[in-house]
Specification:
By secondary structure, this protein is an alpha+beta fold. It contains 5 helices and 10 strands, in the order E-E-H-E-H-H-H-E-E-E-E-E-E-H-E. The strands form 2 sheets. Strands 1, 2, 3, 4, 5, 6 and 10 form a 7-stranded antiparallel beta sheet that branches. The relative contact order is 0.21.
Length: 296
């Protein structure tokens, strides 16, 4: 079972764009343990009702759900200067896209040389000039935001598809708690060079950045792995330890509708957020022709 902390011998089992009943899109990246086959969920709801299986759904699949950045604040800003539904600055949305792109590139680097990972996030968007400030500001436009997320998802899926379902490339997956009040697992989004969440399972535990030697200051919530008489535990950083993000234990205020990881049959539906309030959610759905006459 995939859990918070280090998960050994996993593989990418699925990667797809999902659309909810409000036409809001998200990217679902599914992980499973090697040796476990994924039971694909029928795409048609009537097929799901009528199939002969006694175990419907992706029973062995753990989905990480990534939503597009929100063009409005989902709640009051941390500094108190912005309220729910106030428009967000293009720079903040741009930074969110950089974080998402870095997360996806981090996964791809497990299979593809870095120099071969190419994104073209402004594909299909006329760029009138090369003023960086104007380009960044345009990220606040709902149609631009939705189109960039569409490009990001499609290009990631095109690069990862060859490796989806390939159990010959065993990997490690490091999950952290979503927040102090939400016990569901998620992937890191910052400083991934020093804090990786996906790596080759062939890297030895002493050499892996996902592990650290057990000391008084390391996590107390995970069993140690002993290698050559040295104890190693999952390498949660100082911020994660301070905020209890090494714990997978639910608390009373947890809301299962706020998961950022979908544990197959163990949690229902899609997870509505991956990032903290104000940093993610559903961008406005892109309408046909909405980009016509619109440029950066």
């Amino acid at each position: 079972m995939i859990k918070i902390g280090v998960n050994e011998k996993v593989y990418v089992a699925a990667a797809e764009v999902k659309t909810n009943d409000k036409d809001q899109k998200s990217l679902a990246i599914g992980f499973a343990e090697i040796g476990q086959e994924v039971n694909a969920k029928p795409a048609n709801v009537l097929d799901l009702l009528n199939e002969g299986s006694d175990e419907s759904g992706d029973s062995n699949l753990t989905n990480i759900i990534i939503f597009p950045p929100s063009v409005v604040y989902l709640g009051d800003s941390f500094d108190g200067t912005k309220s729910k539904d106030d428009p967000r600055e293009g720079k903040d949305i741009f930074d969110d896209f950089v974080d998402i792109k870095n997360q996806l590139a981090h996964i791809l680097k497990r299979f593809i040389p870095e120099k071969e990972i190419k994104f073209d996030l402004l594909k299909g968007i006329p760029v009138a000039g090369k003023d960086p400030a104007a380009i960044v500001a345009a990220f606040a436009k709902p149609a631009i935001c939705a189109h960039i997320f569409k490009n990001l998802c499609e290009q990631f899926i095109a690069m990862i598809t060859k490796y989806v379902g390939d159990q010959s490339k065993g990997s490690r997956l490091f999950l952290v708690r979503t927040s102090p009040t939400k016990h569901f697992g998620t992937i890191r989004k910052k400083y991934l060079g020093q804090n990786p969440f996906f790596e080759d399972n062939a890297i030895s535990i002493p050499e892996s950045k996902m592990y650290t030697k057990q000391t008084k200051g390391t996590t107390k919530l995970h069993d140690a792995v002993v290698v050559n008489e040295v104890a190693y535990v999952p390498n949660f950083n100082a911020y994660e330890l301070k905020n209890g993000l090494d714990s997978g234990l639910p608390i009373q205020s947890d809301d299962e509708d706020d998961a950022s990881v979908d544990m197959g049959e163990e949690s229902a539906g899609l997870s509505p957020e991956l990032f903290d309030a104000g940093d993610s959610a559903e961008a406005a759905p892109e309408q046909d022709g909405e980009l016509e006459g619109l440029s950066i």
